[in-house]
């Protein structure tokens, strides 16, 4: 579940999964398992957090909302992770929106319940600190990528990162969702996807994209990054 190229060396994960797997049975014993339908909103930016959740099964997508109201898809939680970390800051409005992507089974947990569990199991507290650090690294990586790369580079990197973490060549997201993820317009994403399709690097399907030549796409990304690193001509 690691990034390609330099990102693999950083140990950053786009899809968070199994980070807290050693505590799965402990959480299942202590808290009540609940089922949530596809599209369920666990948290919404600008509103008080509703609490933490330990994800037992399914997939939760995380979004941010800018001051202008622009929504960006920034990451994915899968099994055995804790999401809605905004709930650590009581009294503050959430800065992220978390939404079920398909049916989800999760354990709702209050801040106080988690603190009590950490007091009982100190190793959980240490592992949770490392987990929060991984989430922060993802946020920092995302901010860096959005600020220094053009749309084509951001799109290709997103496709490579998503597929590498998912161990599949299929990215099951619409072009609109990808545009939200890389902070671009739907038209920009469609144009770049058209170029990649014409080059034989991807196939476009309804609501998803298939990487047909990952190795060549990785080489193309490295060429773009090398070009971006060149000093501007005068």
The computed structural class is alpha+beta
CATH topology of the largest domain: Jelly Rolls
Per CATH, the class of the largest domain reads Mainly Beta
User: What percent strand?
Assistant: 15-25%
Number of helices, counting only DSSP H or I runs of 4 residues or more? 8
CA gyration radius, whole angstroms: 19 Å
The proportion of residues forming helix, as a percent range, comes to 40-55%
Shape: elongated
Mean pLDDT: 81
Number of strands: 12
Distance between termini? Answer: 42 Å
Largest sheet: 5 strands, mixed
CATH homologous superfamily grouping of the largest domain: Jelly Rolls
| Oligomer classification | single chain
Give, in order, the helices and strands: HEHEEEEEEEEHHHEHHEEH
Number of domains: 2
Structure description:
This protein is α+β, with helices and mostly antiparallel strands. It folds into 2 domains: 6-145, Jelly Rolls (Sandwich); 149-228, Orthogonal Bundle (Arc Repressor Mutant, subunit A). 43% of the residues lie in helices and 22% in strands. It contains 8 helices and 12 strands. It has helices spanning 6-10, 24-30, 111-120, 122-148, 151-166, 175-181, 186-198, 214-229, and strands at residues 15-16, 34-36, 41-43, 52-57, 60-65, 71-77, 81-83, 96-100, 104-109, 170-171, 202-205, 208-211. The strands form 3 sheets. It has a 5-stranded mixed sheet. Strands 2-9-4-7 form a 4-stranded antiparallel sheet. A 3-stranded antiparallel sheet has the order 10-12-11. Helix 6 packs across helix 7 (186-198). The protein is elongated, with a radius of gyration of 19 Å. Mean pLDDT is 81; it is low at 1-13.
């Amino acid at each position: 579940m690691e990034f390609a190229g330099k990102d693999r060396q950083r140990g950053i994960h786009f899809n968070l999964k199994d980070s807290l797997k050693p505590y799965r049975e402990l959480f299942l014993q202590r808290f009540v398992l609940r089922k949530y339908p596809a599209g369920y909103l666990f948290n919404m930016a600008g509103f008080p957090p509703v609490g933490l959740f330990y994800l037992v099964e399914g997939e939760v997508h995380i979004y941010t909302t800018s001051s202008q109201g622009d929504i960006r898809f920034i990451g994915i939680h899968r099994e055995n992770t804790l999401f809605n970390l905004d709930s650590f800051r009581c009294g503050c409005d959430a800065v992220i929106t978390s939404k079920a992507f398909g049916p989800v089974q999760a354990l709702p947990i209050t801040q106080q319940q988690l603190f009590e569990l950490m007091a009982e199991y100190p190793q959980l507290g240490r592992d949770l600190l490392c987990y929060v650090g991984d989430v922060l690294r993802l946020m920092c990586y995302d901010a860096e990528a959005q600020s220094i790369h053009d749309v084509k580079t951001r799109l290709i990197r997103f496709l490579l990162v998503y597929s590498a973490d998912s161990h599949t060549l299929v990215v099951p997201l619409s072009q609109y969702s990808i545009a939200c993820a890389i902070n671009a317009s739907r038209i920009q994403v469609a144009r770049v996807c058209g170029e990649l399709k014409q080059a034989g690097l991807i196939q476009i399907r309804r609501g998803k994209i298939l990487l047909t030549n990952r190795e060549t796409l990785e080489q193309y990304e490295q060429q773009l990054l090398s070009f971006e690193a060149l000093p501007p001509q005068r």
